[in-house]
Amino acid sequence: MPAIVVVIAVMAMFALGYRYYSRYLADRVYGLDPAYVTPAHRFADGVDFVPTNRHVLFGHHFTSIAGAAPIVGPAIAVFWGWGPALAWVVLGTIFAAGVHDFGALAVSVRHRARNIGTLAADVISKRARTLFLLIIFFLLTLVNAVFAVVIGNLLVAYPGAVIPIFVEIPLAIAIGQYIYRTRSAALVPSLIGVVALYFLIWVGNLYPIEITGLADALGFERTRDLWVVILFVYAFIASRLPVWLLLQPRDYINSHQLFIAIAVIFAGVLVGMDRIVAPMFNDVPAGSPSIFPFLFITVACGAISGFHSLVASGTTSKQLDKETDARYVGYAGAIGEGSLALGSIIAVTAGVAATRAEWEGLYASYADASGGATRNFVNGIASFATNLGIEFQLATVFAAVVVISFAATTMDTGVRLQRYIVQEIAELVGWRRLSRHLTLAGLLAIAAPLTLALLPGGGDAGYTFGVLWRLFGTTNQLTAGLALAVIAVWVLRRRRNPVAVIVPLVFLLVMTTWALIVQLREFVAADEWVLAPLDAIIFVLALWLIVEAVLALRRASGQPVEPDSGPGRDSGGAGAAAAGPADESGRAVGAESAAGAGATDDRR
Quick check: bond before 2 cis, omega within 30? Predict the structure, then answer.
């Protein structure tokens, strides 16, 4: 199968999905209002609540959700065949991820930019808020741990990426300062940043940095572990900085880099006329994980991801300039994620091997597929780059920088969101000092994932991708299902058609609970007494929340219609825009009050 045929067909389907289906969602399901006063304006504080140009915000949102997961997940999932993996990426992106990401952003904006866990209290029940916050805490713990190990492994395997990755940080800060102080557009400065980053890739390839000796001197058993510690120290500091100083400019640089990486893949495929050598349906060895349910939790962010709802409701909703921008930022962001997943599938089925026999040697078992996922992607994209005249070694550094940049951006956002969740939980149990102590909350936010990332087990790659990855994927998809439950109830209360939300909701809840049961049995049989209790706790919380969601949907179907605007509702509407920002009861509030107490409430 010529790879370029698959690329063109999938991109055409994505374009149709955005053109027609996202318009239907915007008009008939979520009812976007261009006059609605968004929380970015109502609670503007220059730190978390910052009205942002939609293209800049798209860059921040896109690179925050496009971490290593949409690369790694599909690169593993082709183990069952590229046909099933690609089908789930396409259908999941258009009919599940777009609905989920777009909906989480729209609902959060209508509720003072609260995160999706807090919204569970308003939309489902107060008990659901507590349970949802706990599940999100576990998810973020796994996200931050998995991505830290991914980055650590890549920095060890590709030392030429060290210089460009770490010099990008002060480069992004300089760009952020320039944009903020001059109030200029971000496009030109960020493009200059991309050029500088690619120069640094050339420098890094000439002067690779290895820290094995330092790790040995400090007593680390694995070099990766020292990188993990360094990464969490950095993430703790980055999570305390205003979003405009580091996150936004670096994310905008990385959004350009993402499009360049996708262009390199697709252009390399076109020039080289590479063919997919992997089988469409693979006859996997006996004892391998079943395609049902594990395909649908392995792909994770490549199709639909609960982490996206945390980003959309945790940081993106605080920066949305106009409510109608939610369609572009939310749904198109999901399309971008699907495009990256498509690129990953093409790289590991057409770029990493020249023959089917060679490919089958790389994917002989599920352990080989999971342990070699990032390496296969890096080598695949490097192979496409050589079709464009780029030297292979330099191309591998470029590809490694792409993966590390996205994973690091997700870590930054993940640790910041984890701090929010710690503060939310502290507020919920009455620990008000902790809820307002940013430093202590930040330290607690990195403690759990750092500990999990440093646990020994199965070698540098095998532990994370062979064990943690599936638990991360299950928890991630479960969170997506629960976010869809919140969205479905919200839509149903307004007597709009909830089918677009309920169908992916039911599918995900079935797949994730099924996977939790299977994994629990495997963890117990393997004496994994760290992961088995974690799986069991998440499973119990999932059952409880499913019951809460079902009850909420039944209540919503019997309640009077809840309009989008007017007294006592959450929408400001044109009247509120004229009279001043409106709170959730429809009262006008002063600018000082909105930027003060209101913003503080949403930063808990």
Answer: no
**How far is Cα 303 from Cα 354, in angstroms, rounded to an integer?**
27
C-alpha 517 chain-centroid distance: 25
Q: What is the Cα–Cα distance from 512 to 181, expressed in whole angstroms?
A: 47
Inter-residue contact 238 to 246 (CB < 8 Å): yes
Distance between the two ends of the chain, CA-based, in angstroms? Answer: 52
Residue 588 backbone phi and psi in degrees, to 5 = -75, 140
Which residue type, as a one-letter code, is found at position 54?
R
CB 302 within 8 A of CB 73: yes
Handedness of CA 39, 51, 168, 372 (dihedral sign): positive
Q: Which amino acid is at 268?
A: G
φ, ψ for residue 496, nearest 5 deg: -95, 165
**Are 479 and 135 within 8 A, CB to CB?**
yes
Q: Which residue from 332, 248, 241 is spatially nearest to 51, judged by alpha carbons?
A: 248
pLDDT digits (tens, 9 = 90+) for 158-208: 999 999 999 999 999 999 898 888 888 778 898 999 999 999 999 999 999
Q: Is the dihedral of CA 163, 166, 172, 173 positive or negative?
A: negative
Could you report the per-residue pLDDT of 359-384, keeping only the tens digit for each? Answer: 999 999 988 898 889 899 999 999 99
How far is Cα 286 from Cα 299, in angstroms, rounded to an integer? 21
Contact indicator for 442, 420 with CB cutoff of 8 Å: no
* 320, β-bridge pairs: 52
- Contact status, residue 319 vs residue 44, Cβ threshold 8 Å: no
Q: Find out whether 568 and 499 touch, Cβ atoms under 8 Å.
A: no
Q: How far is CA 482 from the centre of its chain?
A: 16
- What pTM, to 2 d.p., does this model score? 0.85
Residue type, 149: V
Residue tagged 């990032």 (tokens) = 374
